[in-house]
Amino acid sequence: MPMTSPGNKHPTIDDVARKAAVSTATVSRVLNRPQAVSASLRSKVAAAVTRLGYVPHAGARALMLRRSGTVGAVFPTVDNAIFATAIDALGRRLAQSDIQLLIATSGYDVLGEMRQAINLVTRGADALVLCGLCQHPDLLHFIARRSLPCVHVMVHEPSGKHVNVGFDNAAAMAQATRYLIDLGHRRIAMLAGITQHNDRAMQRVEGVRRALQAAGLDFPEQRLVQRPYALADARAGLRQLMAQDPAPTAVVCGNDVLAFGALLEANSLGLKVPAELSIVGFDDLEMARHLQPALTTVRIPTQTMWSSAADRIVAAMGGQAFPRSTEIDVALVVRQSTAPVRSEKRGP
């Protein structure tokens, strides 16, 4: 039996007040400032809301509270497991504070990212979560002018100019490169993501360059190949690298997707990994440990990082203090795709 009057499919706050035998003002306080009323009143109104199937009008609630209870996040893509995990972690943590996550994608385009971010704010987002620190200057100006809470994720900026939660991409990739150097590799190449408008990809290239230079090794232009984060593109990139004379003995990849493609192509070329070619990834996606050979990669605690980003947003929206810069620890995970270089393969 319907609990509202005939023909009324959308119960109102007045219906809730009548059902709970309280005033509409009391219902409003229970829904919007529950800490201001007694537990018995909260229980009585909650029971009426449940029985009636009442849903508060989002626009009216936002107008009264001067916030919508939503956070917008712009991701480069959702066609990557690392961002799927990020969305899950971010959304679940925000939901614990009754905040709804709205997502958009930019396709690694700074103008697209700016349009999407502004669209989210136009539609009521109270705060933004963005990837990296290479946003269009106009977007950063827009955020600053509105004093909009915003967290930049996947990068670490110790100066704290922008609120950020992440790690030092260059240092993490340098660690992986030094590991290959310690294994005796001298001809190390990189299969990188497209660095344009992607500071994370740029920093990872810089990490490889720094480690090689510190060891007195060359990093010639032809040993850096940039490809989109897709298996087919990664396979083409590895073919290009292995066609060089002399070919590299090790390839460090800008993320695990590129490394997966490199492993597939190495097999297609008849190269034994790691006996003839060592391959290192970045991210430690779930598939990395299940491959044969299992992938050596840099482990990023993705859920921890994005949950921490959500904590910063919740604190900012609540007017609470929080650290402006948070560094997330990463680690190199050594598996089966890397091995000491063969003595006959040593060279310049």
From TrEMBL:
One Gene Ontology MF term: transcription cis-regulatory region binding
The keyword DNA-binding is assigned to this record: yes
Keyword annotations: DNA-binding, Transcription, Transcription regulation
SUPFAM superfamilies linked to this entry: lambda repressor-like DNA-binding domains, Periplasmic binding protein-like I
SMART domains membership: HTH_LACI (SM00354)
PROSITE patterns: HTH_LACI_1, HTH_LACI_2
Domain HTH lacI-type: 11-65
Name assigned to this protein: Transcriptional regulator, LacI family
Species the sequence originates in: Verminephrobacter eiseniae (strain EF01-2)
